[in-house]
Amino acid sequence: MEDQSPKPIRCKAAVCRAAGEPLTIEEIVVDPPKAYEVRVKIICTSLCHTDITCWQGKVSPVFPRILGHEAYGVVESVGEHVEGFAAGDAVDNNLCCAVPFMIGPGMRRDGTGRFWDAQGNPLHDLLATSTFSEYTVMDMNQLVKLDPAVPPKLGCLISCGGATGVGAAWRTARVKPGSSVAIFGLGSVGLAVAQGAKMCGASKIIGVDLNPDKEKFGKAFGVTDFVNPSTLDKNSSVSGMTGGGGVDCSFECIGVPSVMVDAFRCTKKGNGKTVLLGLGNLEDELRLPAHEFLYGKCIMGSAVGGLKPKTDFPILADKCMSNELQLDGLVTHEVGLQEINKAFDLLVQGNSLRCIIWMDK
Fold this sequence. Notes:
InterPro entries: ADH-like_C (IPR013149), ADH-like_N (IPR013154), ADH_Zn_CS (IPR002328), ER (IPR020843), GroES-like_sf (IPR011032), NAD(P)-bd_dom_sf (IPR036291). This protein has helices at 49-55, 152-158, 161-172, 188-200, 214-220, 238-241, 257-265, 309-321, 340-348; strands at residues 9-15, 24-30, 37-46, 70-78, 90-93, 115-116, 122-123, 135-139, 143-145, 180-184, 204-208, 225-227, 249-252, 273-276, 298-301, 331-336, 354-358. It has 361 residues and is an alpha/beta fold. It starts with 8 loop residues before the first strand and ends with a strand.
């Protein structure tokens, strides 16, 4: 009988050959999925600051590499022992700790790769996802099945940045109705935090950003007050806006230690919470006097907003479909795979929030 098992696929991918260099569109080979793995046809993906950090070589500087981790796709084939997924299922990616977490390279269960260039040389992955490719292979635990009615762009946003921001307010900080929050950095994640805080009923949502243009974006996403640190006076500071007592929760969405300190110090004594979401350099250190923790304040990290993607992503999709959340506004640009370097330029220059990269555009 004819062998019906999945075969290697030739397709296009954006390959990062060296840190900081433009990506090259190349023909690559994607291996079939092994046991517990799924091969996915990527419909669209988007560019996240984590991709920029890895592209610059600040984190896990391994090249050549296929970046990308925020995407929407359709299952093409499944490996042995895969349950809950079948060819044609709409999916986005998921961070799951049931298999070891690593930025890369290597698949979660056996540490080997699934990508090869035209000369037969291995191409490293990122987060065992590598969505800047027309096809990719992921562990089944890294995928979430979505209702096919969810638009691809929305499924893409929910898979990382949108979920991280909303979840940080909703699940990690558990923002309470009537509470006050401060958000340091109004990029995609910070604006999603504002949406999450608004959804939770926060009465004061203070956006902090050096770019004055972010005030307009912030107000559209639920920010009630805006602070530009470069033009601060006593009354326009976060402390001044809260009568000197500080906010109930703060969120650092940049990845700069000095800003993390500012975020911590602007929270209330007794029960203030600071959630760190920004990814900086691996060698960065956060330093605070130990006695400041005696005030009862705390600092928390947050991966994907503390969400349980298998159950929470569909909830977020429903809230977006019913307009309770407006994450679609995060998309400021759309390009095809051939134009992916334009997406990098836009984000590095601070001229975009999320750029959707379509595989077939």
